[in-house]
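quick one before i forget lol
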Amino acid sequence: MIRMIIMIRRAHNSDKVMRMNLSESLTVELKEMYTDDIRKTVIAFANTAGGCIYIGIADDGRVVGVDNSDEVMLRVSNAVRDSIRPDVTVFTSYHIDKINDKNIVVIEVLKGTACPYYLESKGIRPGGVYVRQGASSVPASLAAILKMIKETDGDSYEAERCTNQTLTFEYAESEFKRAGVEFGITQKKTLKILNDDNMYTRLAELLSDQCLHTIKSAAFDGTEKLNFKDRAEFGGSVLKQVNDAYDYIDRFNRTRSEFEGIYRIDKRDYPVEAVREALLNAVVHRDYSFSGSILVSVFDDRIEIISIGGLVKGISYDDMMLGVSIQRNERLANVFYRLNLIESFGTGIKKIMDCYKGNYVQPEINVSENAFKITLPNINYSSGISVTSEPREQMIMDLLKKQGTVTRKDVEQLLDVSQATAARILKKMTLSGVLSSMGNGKNMKYVNNGH
């Protein structure tokens, strides 16, 4: 079919050259001689509406001819084959016309089906992608490039071609090796990291060391976003990000000890499985077509994890709680499954809820049109066990466990501090909700607010 179209167009265009002077237009380009810019014109025609390039005709329509026409035609075909990606050769043809006894090299280009086409040396960016505007071949805007990708590759973000084709996978390779999974060309194609044209997809970008998305984490003093204790931002492969974010949370996930008779019972502030599942859920299900970061906020009494993207269309909140799952990023989820990071689809929320069985506090899930938030409560905070990272405050809480109440004088002696310092520490712990006060003046006593 393509060959038939080319033959018809060739006959038509050849006849037009014989009968009238050509002028440059949306589908016609005139070149007095071969130049490397011809590659840009081929790209522009393939990305726009097709067209013909005539080598041997000057801009004003004069027929100057080409002396070494066979050599020029070979040079053009080699340049098109070697420097333009994806392969556009199936949409190009070459022949020699004779006008006024002079040889003219004619390059016919059909609109391609894998737009955007681009110069391999420049990549999928404005400096490498060209489109036709009137009689000129001009760099495409980033918006136009993304539109072409979307129109060609469909609505799946993961399936789109990545604009960066020089990705590296140092961290991903180590994770695949750890899991005992091969990570060669064959596996990359099977997992859709490479598409049928051996180009990296957006999925590849997410797994690469050059991933554009991040996780932002912060720890706050108390239960409000008033005073930062610490903050960090994690980039690189999403595989690295989920590990880094987990390690960050783990720094604040303290182990508390209680005794039942002679037996010691250790309890983490947050069930580690719940933290793990919440992070994996945020990374696997977020909407990567938006550029905002996943947000992790650690408070004294809870952890909040917010990711961009509400529920996938067709799924309700009740469906989700029943375990129904439609993957927004099915290919990314498949990679996590292959690496044994998730066991099966649709079980993450149930696992989180199961981690809190038998506890007074339960996780909360809030969903809006464009965001998903899961809140993990601190089990120890709610059960009255101290939640504080300050050593002096911890000493006060330990004393409270022994004697039930403490006074300012007790704190002065315990910490070897002044009256003013003791009062300041107790006030801070009271305002943050850790302690409650009873009585007035010198008779004021403090108790654990959880009891």
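fyi The radius of gyration is 33 Å.
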